Amino acid sequence: MPLSTLTYRSITDAQMLPRLIRLGPNLYGAVFTLMKLVPAQYILRRALQRGELTEDTVIVETTSGTFGLALAMQAALMERELVLVSDPAIDDNLYRRLTDLGAKVEMCLEPAPVGGYQGARLTKVAEIRASLPSTFCPEQYNNPDNARSYHVVADQLVRTFGTVDCLVGTVGTAGSMCGTGGGLREYSPHTQVIGVDSHRSVLFGQPDGPRSLRGLGNSLWPANLDHTLFDEIHWCNATEAYAQTRALHAESALFQGPTSGAAHLVAQWWAAKNPDGLCVVMLPDEGYRYQATVYDDAWLAANGHVLAERPTEPVTVASPAEAGDRWTRLVWGRRSYEEVPGVVPRVTHPLAERALS
């Protein structure tokens, strides 16, 4: 096999696009080192081109994980000041890495009554921006550049495979799935787009509640989320996602995080059910943040995340209201949110617009 002779301008350029790894006869993983580099680089470069990011402008954003790391990497390379607003979901290792890259991290220790930690973080972002003369907020939830940035991934998939019959991935801010899925649909309108969410996430109609599975799901409805793009929605719990993450490592030697495990659980099922269709699954980030948790058997046992047997198929329901606490599937059918029976009523978080304006 020939060795790569490519050189890159920066580490973010080198790590941005995924490696496409064969995981089964008709299943490929789009394996990212850090998927959030795609929107972080695109959004900041576009802001620079528009004159919104001067030398004195402070970048301010809300994050509880990998988007913050991607921004910190890009901001360090661009020599821009960065303030990140986070919550207790951020672990000590990530905190140290962010601060080592020069970011200032502000913590919200209590969730807001409406919108949970996302709501609390948006409130803090608004306060910080009001106190500074010049700021730029990447607005990962509402900035259309988030979704647009992933068209480069869709182009990569089309160049490699021609037609992709099914794209599977987790949904949080909705940028990756709406951007990549929408880009694929421009080439092949039949492409199925399957979103993977966590229970007690409002994105696809469940009531908001505590979620131990992080990196997907949301307590708010991002403007980037186009419900009419999705053919199916699957919800899974943390234990199922963690077990599949470990299985992905043991069986394919892919050391990824639990969002990858959740997506792979669904993609593996779809590929087996559709042997003549080519499926690509988005695997967002590596597993190093989770060595003391998901990859630690003692931690899994102590926190009640041990499965006697991994599930092989989901329970199919007709409404989000029927979803239990295990792997569940709903045929969304490219409907709008309001067209789906049993969804919780959508409410607008007033601080979202204030924080991002």
From TrEMBL:
The keyword Ligase does not apply. Gene3D superfamilies: 3.40.50.1100. Residues 36-267 form the Tryptophan synthase beta chain-like PALP domain. Keywords: Pyridoxal phosphate. CDD domains: CBS_like. GO terms for biological process: alpha-amino acid metabolic process. PANTHER family: CYSTATHIONINE BETA-SYNTHASE. This is Tryptophan synthase beta chain-like PALP domain-containing protein.
